[in-house]
Fold:
Amino acid sequence: MTTYAEAAVENSCLICGARNLVGAMVCCDCQAPLAIVHDVAAQERDPQIVTILGESNVGKTVYLGFLLDMLTQRAADYEAIPKGAYSVDLQQNVISHMARRTFPPKTAMEANSWYWAYYQIYQRKPAPKWIDLLMPDMAGESLAAEVSTPNTFKVIRSLLKLSAGTLLLVDAAMAANGSTQPDFFAVKMLSYIDSMHQAKRDERVQTPTAIVLCKADHCPECFDHPRRFAQANLNRLWNLCENRFSNVEFFATSVVGSLGYATAPGEDYVTPIPLHTALQGVLEPFQWVTDQL
Ligand SMILES: Nc1nc2c(ncn2[C@@H]2O[C@H](COP(=O)(O)OP(=O)(O)OP(=O)(O)O)[C@@H](O)[C@H]2O)c(=O)[nH]1
Ligand SMILES: [Mg+2]
Ligand SMILES: [Zn+2]
Structure:
């Protein structure tokens, strides 16, 4: 086992372990940024990886951007210090778009264009502790590709193996409308994780897994009873969680207070316009996961 200082000297990737040329910026094997290796070496403490999963268009980028922004603004007595300027980019991208009343663009499939956030977080309650969190914003389409054909995105597999906690985002608005798509995608994602832990067949997966019901502004009943909502509208997911995951909790979240809809002249698709932001339930799933790290 190499230490982080040795890894930094060899420029070996924190995520997949591949050795890279000195001066390389992204890992030659998995495309993870190598700046993290040096920032971790300076920290001399294990970073904990929390992965944000979910289908394309479920709201991962928006959620993560607002979460990081809340943390850096000391919500719920957290202190959050971004390590490396690259860690601020995601938050800035989301906040500046929302300030102009537009949603941020969709995340590109290529791993070298993802935002990576590496934050040092101080939690006062229940007991004071420091956690170093590494949270990449992956593209939903890349996750879907990896789940259907394992090893197309090596970085995803490596990240999930190292994950200390998971937030799985599910589109509650679609599920409430009767679509089975969110249920099936979530089941595929969790069975992928479950099969990675195959060595321990009879044991259930213990990684804290928060199921986050997104866009709950469209179905406010979610906020009152997220578990009941999941059991009724995401029943396949609910059953898989009961059978194979020992540490699961359900949450509802929403970032917008009201939406407008607009089309551009000559275009036939409608774009949602976030008229104002109203954050609800953004911090709770994160708090639940970090309490268990
Ligand atoms: N009503 C509502 N819509 C939301 C909310 N959050 C996100 N959206 C919508 O969901 C869309 C996708 O959000 P993103 O954060 O870009 O989705 P993503 O999961 O990062 O998607 P990929 O980057 O393709 O993986 C946004 O453009 C909004 O239209 C929310 O809280 N409420
Ligand atoms: Mg995205
Ligand atoms: Zn790598």
